[in-house]
Amino acid sequence: MRDFPPQIRAYTDRGADAPDTRSPRAFLWWMVRQNGSLFWAGLLVALIWMVPQTVGPWMVGRAIDTGIVAGDSAATAQWVLALAVVTVFGAASGIAFHTVIVREWLIALYGTTMLVTRKALQLGHVLTRRTPTGEVLSVSGSDGDQFGALMEITTRAISQLAAYLVVAAIVLSTSVRMGVLVLVSAPLLVLLGTPLLRPMQRWQGVERSRNSELTSMATDIVGGLRILRGIGGEETFGGNYAGQSQRVRQSGVSAGRWLAAVESVGVLLSGGFVVALMWLGTREVAQGRLTVGQLVSFLGYGLFLIQPMRTFVEFAQKWTRSVVSARKAVAVFSQRPPWVHPDEPATLDTGAEIVDRESGASIRPGILTMVVSAVPDDSAALADRLGRYLPSEEGALVSDEIPEDMKGRAARRERSARARAREEQAHRDEERARQPWGVTVGGVDLSRVELDDVRRHILVSDTSPQVFAGTLRAAVDPLGRLTREQAERALYTAAADDVFDALPGGWQGELEERGRGLSGGQRQRLVLMRALAADPDILVLVEPTSAVDAHTEARIAARLGEHRAGRTTVVMTASPLLLHHADEIILLESGVATARGRHANLLTDSAAYRSVVVRGGDADPSVLSHLSEESR
Fold first, then answer.
1. Range with the poorest average pLDDT among 205-214, 403-412, 488-497, 580-589
2. What integer pLDDT is reported at residue 250 of this predicted model?
3. What is the pTM assigned to this prediction?
4. How does it sit in the membrane (predicted)?
5. What is the number of H-type helices and E-type strands within the chain?
6. Are 38 and 104 in contact (CB under 8 A)?
7. Please, are residues 164 and 189 in contact by the beta-carbon 8 Å criterion?
8. Before 5, cis peptide (omega within 30)?
9. Nearest partner of 268 among 200, 185, 195, judged by Cα
10. Distance of CA 301 to the CA centre of its chain
11. What is the rounded distance in angstroms from the CA atom of residue 411 to the CA atom of residue 415?
12. Are the C-beta atoms of 345 and 225 separated by less than 8 Å?
């Protein structure tokens, strides 16, 4: 039996078994195979659990015919004792079945969450360029629960199908008419319920799509809550969220109507089956073809068979929902990473000069270099290129949601078109990654280096970092490699003393998710401290002090060069306090490096530099030079 939690290695470990994403049904079958021996163990226990329920009515009938009707008290006692043993056996097997099936459910649920996590690790920043956030969260949460429910109902349905066939054989051997009635009842239920499944599936798909959109809206609102409050946008975005939640409710009600219709058919046919079985059974007894005990057994079987018939209806419902969820999961898991492994990987010489072909910027090794641009996006794009991150693209993300008025072939064509759009987007990413990257380190293009090596040696800390819940120590040193002195040195350089003091418990103080309990400046310094603690060979910082006050910024500026002495550090900033301490500054104009030098020299010699760095760029250069000297 598989241990819990499930061992998922797909996407991040080479050669690991990845989900079958050829179709939703292929993916669901892969999920069953992933349960391995546990699925078959669950099925075996479920079949054992069905044995007492299958033989119980027959034993009751035999007790009546051979004991009660015959007046044999000893035979009656024997059958009652045997029935008690079977009942206890059934209770024990039921407990075992429930234990195994819950384990199977949890493995499917948390296995899906781990798959999403590993897919996010594999794709990195590319995932959010291709798929809406709400779609990914829905696959990880609600869809994973659907897959777990399918594992449970599949095991139960197979075991009850076996029980249904056994009961049909028992009844058929006793009475051909009643056996035929039992055999026909289940196929008739499926036949009448099938036309209702398609509209139910459609509305469940609409509900799922609307719900993922609602989740995306919620994450956007939470992420931008501070800005929304600042501009008074809470009511507007809150109204949009409320409107979307009503659309989710409406689609849920529509799906519920069809679900109720399927349930109603199941209840109606199940009840009609019992009535027909009893009517036919009493006629058989009246005509002497059945005994009283056999009639009681048939009544027990009639009541028992309601359970498999209801289970078949439930299986159809959960299968329909799982296919909808699997279609969404396939849209996420089928995405290929754009990066390709070089045929002959090169070694990254982190002590060599870095050259960016697009901007013409060259960064000397072992010094503190700062990049200034009037357009922050240009310097941020340079940071992405240095870290080998694909550039962000404007435009709508490709979702699997289709217009609600589309049905049948039109819906399938639209869904295929969305899939092709995702494929084309992935193809463009792959083509971009296959080309020479345009950034060389020691003459070696980054495309010739394994991506893991690039990530290991080059760290880019951008303007939208993530802060996770946990202790301050875990946030700064997630791998637990730092000594206390190293951690305190990073804290000192980032001037994050107040972050340490604000958390009861110091290094063991608990941070809230996204660092909600911290101010913007504290969160920024926490992220800077984390980047410094990682101690990469090449560190790229994007606007690391944009949210701190001037006094704190001056302390960080004075300490950063000493902390990173001898290692390559690139800072994207236009802050004079930071620029004053740079070993070298590169000026970008329209994304191209046009000047380089020290802060004081550029203030004097470059009007373009002054216009970016100093308000009122027409100030007297001699005054600016004097101010620069004063700041020393």
1. 403-412
2. 81
3. 0.67
4. Multi-pass membrane protein
5. 22, 12
6. yes
7. no
8. yes
9. 185
10. 45
11. 6
12. no
